[in-house]
Design goal:
With about 300 residues, the chain is α/β, with parallel strands linked by helices. It has helices spanning about 10-20, 35-40, 55-60, 80-105, 140-155, 175-185, 205-215, 235-245, 255-265, 270, 280-285, 295-300, and strands spanning about 1-5, 25-30, 50, 65-70, 115-120, 130, 160-165, 170, 200, 200-205, 225, 235, 275. Helix 1 (about 10-20) crosses helix 7 (about 205-215), helix 4 packs parallel to helix 5 and helix 8 (about 235-245) runs parallel beside helix 12. Bound molecules: NADPH dihydro-nicotinamide-adenine-dinucleotide phosphate (NDP). NADPH dihydro-nicotinamide-adenine-dinucleotide phosphate binds next to helix 1, helix 2, helix 4, strand 5 and strand 8.
Length: about 300
């Protein structure tokens, strides 16, 4: 299979590319910067891995069997009005570009599936509600971003299978929220953040990559699929487990200001949160490597 991936140089993309290559697929890395992609991917991967800068995306997508769309400016930053615009613009533009290329491709060159990332921020935040794929969208800034991002992906022609993965907080060693939280837990202690009652709908990096990979290969994966583990936890439990695995006691709270300092307003994803269940993945029989947060965190801490 030939798979074109936008955002391939990112936290999730890098692991997905490794997985695709190790299963002998060919990967087209769709990037804004060849120099960056060359730094990220070792030369051993060529020629199974082809790097394409924006002007070459069309040529790369034409003839691919699948496209995975992960591009977007990180949200873990300080949200000035300009940055908020860029967080939205970057996702909508990349999605729009990919969708236009697919829709304009000659039928014999058109990929048969588009797997496009979105986020559980779609549902808004709540300490009491439980969300699944059938729930309505929230009404805050991140839900608006997700709605518009998904709407762009939904413009892909009907004959192309579309899977929209609403991704939860991805836990992995070399990126995402956890990489920023671990040093804080080392500096302070493993205690709760705020009340600790907020929901934390997480997923291990390997599981989100496997889910995306399944969505590429399996024709039953279509429409919205929540990319979260089956056992979300309250933030107090997440902090307690994280405190334990990094060897910090869980009675001294990590101050909210410290988390905000490393995650910017993107900390709202962790400090507010939502309980999201992966109904569709369960129906599809998706098998999680890490259904429980304790096992996920322990595995991450064992990684070299
Ligand atoms: P990363 O931030 O690690 O990587 C995303 C990639 O997007 C980058 O490698 C970059 O690729 C591209 N990118 C970055 N900034 C811009 C920009 N301003 N304009 C266009 N492209 C840009 O993201 P993740 O791997 O963590 O996540 C992948 C997708 O999944 C994202 O869209 C994210 O919102 C979504 N998601 C992730 C979650 C998580 O916990 N990690 C949770 C929920 C959703 P290049 O420089 O090569 O072009």
């Amino acid at each position: 299979m030939v798979v074109s991936v936008t955002g391939a140089t990112g936290f999730i993309g890098r692991r997905l590319v490794q997985k695709l290559l190790s299963d002998n697929h060919k990967v087209h890395v769709l990037t804004r910067s060849r120099a960056k992609a060359q730094l990220v991917f070792s030369a051993d991967n060529f020629p199974k891995l082809v790097i394409a800068e924006e002007r070459e995306w069309e040529q790369s997508i034409n003839g691919s069997n699948a496209v995975v769309n992960l591009a977007g400016m990180p949200i873990s930053t300080r949200w000035s009005p300009e940055i908020k615009k860029e967080i939205k613009r970057s996702r909508i533009n990349a999605t729009s570009k990919v969708v236009d290329i697919i829709n304009n491709a000659k039928l014999d060159l058109r990929p048969s599936v588009l797997v496009s990332a979105t986020a559980i921020g779609y549902y808004g935040t709540s300490e009491t509600l439980v969300f699944d794929e059938n729930s309505r969208s929230g009404n805050d800034y991140l839900s608006e971003v997700c709605r518009e991002w998904e709407a762009k992906a939904l413009e892909v022609d009907n004959d192309v299978r579309l899977a929209l993965i609403r991704i939860g907080v991805v836990l992995g060693k070399d990126g995402g929220a956890l990489a920023k939280m671990i040093p804080l837990f080392m500096m302070f202690a493993g205690g709760p953040l705020g009340t600790g009652r907020q929901w934390f709908s997480w997923i291990h990096l390997d599981d989100v990559v496997n889910l995306i990979y399944e969505a590429v290969r399996n024709p039953s994966y279509k429409g919205v699929i929540n990319g979260t583990a089956p056992n979300p936890v309250r933030l107090s439990e997440m902090c307690e487990q994280l405190g334990q695995v990094v060897g910090r006691p869980s009675w001294l709270p990590v101050p909210e200001f410290a988390l905000k300092a490393v995650l910017g307003e993107g900390a709202s994803v962790v400090l507010e949160g939502q309980k999201v269940l992966p109904l569709k993945a369960k129906e599809l029989g998706f098998s999680y490597k890490y259904p429980y947060v304790k096992d996920a965190l322990e595995a991450i801490m064992r990684e070299p």
